[in-house]
Structure to design on (222 residues):
């Protein structure tokens, strides 16, 4: 008799993990976070409840890890799978920020992300623990990328040295998040490009460049 090879537990575990990710994301999108349960995820994934508890402590842990995995898959599909990912530094801060925000727009329009992301974001507003975990695991790594890019711009003299990058990034990240969450307007490349322009150049009228060798005139003189 030909001896059959022993089942590969690693492959079986990976299949189960993928099934659990898919089930968790689908359920939270369909019924919302409060009605999503470990039992429901297990039933939809075709695994035992104890399989989930062996790997995760709560449904929040499952959902957050599933979302992180989804983000990693999207990065791989877009050819951005290098670790750790950084915002490119081409020397043009505005162009670099616009490019990464356009990728964010694409992700926010992707139904795979939009439905579970909205469910998690909405629940995070009333569930303090989930909110903190979402910020720490989902938002903070992305925000640090902006911090690093803005600090690079400071070293290059493109941003004032006294500017706090953690506050500065809110000028273009927070309005985008608010518009997306509250449906207050369309999410588009044009919108995020404008956010970057306003953030970097401000709202006051720009002083026209004075040609070299030309004396500046007093603004209140004749």
């Amino acid at each position: 008799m030909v001896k059959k090879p022993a089942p590969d537990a690693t492959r079986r575990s990976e299949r189960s993990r993928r099934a659990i990710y898919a089930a968790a994301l689908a359920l939270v999108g369909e019924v919302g976070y409060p009605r999503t349960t470990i039992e429901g995820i297990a039933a939809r994934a075709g695994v035992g409840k104890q399989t989930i508890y062996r790997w995760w402590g709560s449904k929040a842990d499952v959902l957050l890890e599933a979302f992180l995995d989804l983000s990693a898959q999207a990065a791989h599909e877009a050819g951005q799978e290098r670790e750790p990912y950084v915002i490119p530094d081409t020397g043009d801060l505005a162009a670099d920020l616009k490019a990464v925000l356009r990728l964010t727009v694409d992700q926010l329009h992707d139904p795979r992300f939009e439905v579970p992301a909205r469910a998690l974001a909405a629940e995070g507003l009333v569930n303090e623990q989930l909110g903190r975990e979402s910020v720490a695991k989902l938002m903070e790594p992305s925000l640090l990328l902006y911090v690093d890019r803005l600090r690079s711009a400071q070293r290059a003299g493109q941003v004032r040295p006294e500017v706090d990058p953690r506050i500065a990034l809110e000028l273009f990240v927070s309005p985008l998040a608010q518009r997306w969450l509250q449906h207050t307007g369309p999410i588009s490349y044009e919108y995020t490009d404008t956010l970057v322009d306003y953030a970097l150049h401000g709202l006051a009228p720009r002083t026209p460049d004075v040609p070299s060798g030309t004396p500046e005139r007093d603004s209140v003189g004749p």
Residues 2-9, 212-222 have pLDDT under 50 and may be disordered. DSSP finds ten helices and no strands in the chain. Residues 86-201 form a domain with the Tetracycline Repressor; domain 2 fold (CATH 1.10.357.10). The radius of gyration is 23 Å.
